[in-house]
Structures are given as structure tokens and as C-alpha cells.
Write a structure and sequence with these properties.
Order of helices and strands: HHEEEHEHEHEHHHHHEHEHH
Number of strands: 8
Helix content: 40-55%
Amino acid sequence: MSRRKKILLSVLGVLLFIIFVLPYLLPLNGPAPVDPTTLADPDGAFVQAGDTRMYYQKSGSGDVPIVLVHGFGASSLSWRENLTPIADAGFTVYAPDMRGFGLSDKGWDKSMSQDAQADRLKAFMDAQGIERAVLAGNSMGGGIVTNFALRYPDRVRGLVLVDPAIYGGTNSGLASTLISLPGIQRWAQHAVRFILANDDRNASTIKSAWFDPAKVTPDVLSGYRRALQTPDWDIGLLALVRDGMSNNLGPRLKELNVPTLIVWGEHDTWISPSNAPKLNQDISRSKLAIIQDAGHVPHEERPEEFNGLVIDFARGLE
């Protein structure tokens, strides 16, 4: 064998070692996983929703149910300032953790597409005996509830879309292929943990969604970080990258025929408020409210204003 071939084989061997062996030799950063039931809130509960044991919080006992669906990287805790105030206005309010988030099941082996998540939301409603509900969703959750309304229109009283991820889904074919390779998947786990399992980088990521980062208190950060103590939280996020990035609902919005409230934070830097007028135009029975001094999570930054909008909208449907 020539010297050149020996060098090439050596380089190839080193590359293969780095890609497929080294990531398994390096420890994964972050807290040790615990049983999610030990992290549950006093008023929280678990229910089997299709293929997922789903965690949720519930408040109120009104005749009209409202289901709040969180965004990417969040959980039912993102609705902590909305759940009870809206329920106190005469509604029954539910806030589930979708698969892959919060205290609900995670993992690699189940689909994380919007279709699959919409089906899980239906299974959750079935398990709760909810026939029709007002569905509210922030960011990723806005895409899920919109998908739900297209799939199961008879189950929806109204939609509340909060800075929703509706337009511009990208094809995840290449990412799906790469991230399914064991070595690359393990490196991706390290990358996700490098960002999210580090307190400073985690806080910076969360604060970037707010207009006023001073409102991101230690309690808020603790709520967002709770999921990092559950098993497979990182691989669950990677499964979403694998399945959930090709969800451009824009072409189907004309099919929606349900009363819709669109709420957008004036200073959202994650999903531009310039999408709001277009969405208002594309959904025939919609109205738009812009919340000032708020970013991507206006329900967290300006809860009183947000709660009033939702209550008035839901009462108008009765």
C-alpha cells in the first residue's frame, strides 16, 4: 500500500472515530434525569392521550372549555398568568404539555409532526370529555391548533393564535437524514445541551423572546428549565427537528371557517409582526390585536391585556 493511501485511511479512521465514537465517550452535560411525576405541580395531573402520557394543568368548571397550547421549548407553565384568571371569568381552562415538552413523554420513536401533535391534542380532548373547545396556541402551538382546526373543524369553537408559527415551513429531509445517523445524533444532543443546559445561555435564549427581559424572573427561568430534568428531553427536541420543520400552513388558511383571534406582540423578534396583517387577511373570520410592549410571548409579558382579549373573544362565541 502506498504512503498516500495509508495517510488517507488514517485520516478517514480519525474522522470516523470523531463522528461515530467520540461523542459517546464524552459525558452529556446537564442535570441527571428524574421521574417527571416528582416534578408535577400540586394541581397538575397526567393522562394517556394516544401514544403519549400527557401532563396538564386545569382550572375552573365553566361550560365552555379553553385549551392553551404552548410554544417550542415551553410548557404548560408558560400559561401560569392566564390559566386561573381566564377560568375565573367562567371557563374551564386546560394547559397540556405537548409530547416532547414539559413533563409529558419524550423520545425518538414517535412522530413529532404537526399532524401527529394535532392527533394527540384530539386524544387529550377525548380523554377529558371535551367535545368542542376554544383552542389557543402560541408560536409552535399556534401551528398545532391551526392544524387541528383544519383536521377536526367540528371540535373547534374558536381559535386564538398568539404569535403563531404558520408560514414558511422548510423541508427537513436532509436534516432528518443527518440527525438520524447515530454519531451525528449524539453530537446534536451535545449541541442542544451546550445551549440549553447551561444557565447563562439558557437564560439568554429565553430572554430573547421577551420585549422586556427584566420581566424574566428566576421563577420564570425555573419553569422553563423544569423539562431539562426529565428523561430524553434533548432527543425529543431533535425528533421535532426531524419531523416538525415542514409545516407551512399558509396555503391552507383559506379552508379555515372558524372565528379566530390573532394576537401579536408588537416587538416580536422571533416571528415578525409583519406576518400579522397577512394572517388576518388569509383567515376570513379573523380579527387582529397587537399588544404593545410585548415580544414573542405577549401572554407572559402582558397577561392582563391578553386575558381580557381572550375572555371577551370566548364570551362572544357563546
